[in-house]
Amino acid sequence: MSTKKDDIPTTLPLLRDRIDALDSQIQRLINERAMCAEKVAEVKMAEQGVQSAVFYRPEREAQVLRRVMERNEGPLGNEEMAKIFRQIMSSCLALEKPMRIAFLGPVGTFTQQAALKHFGNSIVSAPMAAIDEVFREVESGAANYGVVPVENSTEGVVNHTLDSFRGSRLKICGEVEVRIHHNLLVAPNVNPDDVTHIYSHQQSLAQCRAWLDRYWPHAERVAVSSNAEGARLAEEAGKNGKAVAAIAGDIASELYSLSVVSANIEDHPDNTTRFLIIGNEKIPPSGKDKTSLLVSAKNEPGALYRLLESFERHGVDMTRLETRPSLISKWGYVFYIDFVGHCEDAQCRSVIEELRERASEVKVLGSYPVAVL
């Protein structure tokens, strides 16, 4: 039964006593949940075998977080409440089996931020130098899952990620969206007025182009492998007495002990990057899912129309269509398609069956829960 506001004490000593009592109750319930999680692990290993047991269930976690948001009565917001439960679930899952998550590194990147947002903080982080290395780490079994960027709301798709799916057996197991806020950073001993070079990833420099043109036109912009690498170079330059700045997020500024000169300098305030969770298993329906396909069209007139017509006729909402060179035949192309629904849904299954008849190749990259947070 929920507490009414009128039932809450109004004096400071009584309020503190009430908070202490609630903290004790919350702590007891969290530990009880953790014990249940340990029991779940025992049951799974007994039924599925120690080596075959699957502990992380993306569809189950998505359902839990949705219910958390649906039943939330405030005053905490839905997303804030879900974030709290996200970390509780992460800590409980670590009791079952700590997960090793590979991501596009180095540490301090937005991809690491996406990994922590999706899996919580109770994971073993494994930064990789390139997107294809993330794929290899998961394929080899060295990591349970990987996190890679796939598209940005202002700069478009990440082609390297799309191309990596062609020769990979990995599946898309989830997605996570991260609002991208860029900061101009310098080492504590650097005078911002003396800055001559600004380091960052080329996409971040592009996302802050108008701001840089207005406020820092004199500084040379240097593209590096990642925002975190730019932050590392700025820290190193500061130690050597050089006036260098970096553009990166909060996690990089904390990691490399840099000062924020200007915050949220991105040209578009709604700048968002979508990341994919890649793994080895197929994900059952969660009730609110998305499916991604790779389709090679036949080289004939009207081929693309015949592919897309199936979506309209079966009432399936296609949310993304990207074209990439096939790398097999000259002027041949493959299409990456996202649509709403799970591949096991009747309508979606009908669309996929028709695509297989009309295309030279159809590869289901995965059906997975729509991002909750």
UniProtKB/TrEMBL annotation:
ACT domain span: 292-369
Residues of the Prephenate dehydratase domain: 100-280
Chemical reaction(s) catalysed: chorismate = prephenate; prephenate + H(+) = 3-phenylpyruvate + CO2 + H2O
Record's keyword annotation contains Lyase: yes
Gene3D superfamilies per record: 3.30.70.260, Chorismate mutase, Periplasmic binding protein-like II
Family matches, as InterPro entries: ACT-like_dom_sf, ACT_dom, Chor_mutase/pphenate_deHydtase, Chorismate_II_sf, CM_dom_sf, CM_II_prokaryot, G/b/e-P-prot_chorismate_mutase, Preph_deHydtase
Name recorded for this polypeptide: Bifunctional chorismate mutase/prephenate dehydratase
Lineage of producing organism: Bacteria, Pseudomonadati, Pseudomonadota, Gammaproteobacteria, Lysobacterales
Gene: pheA
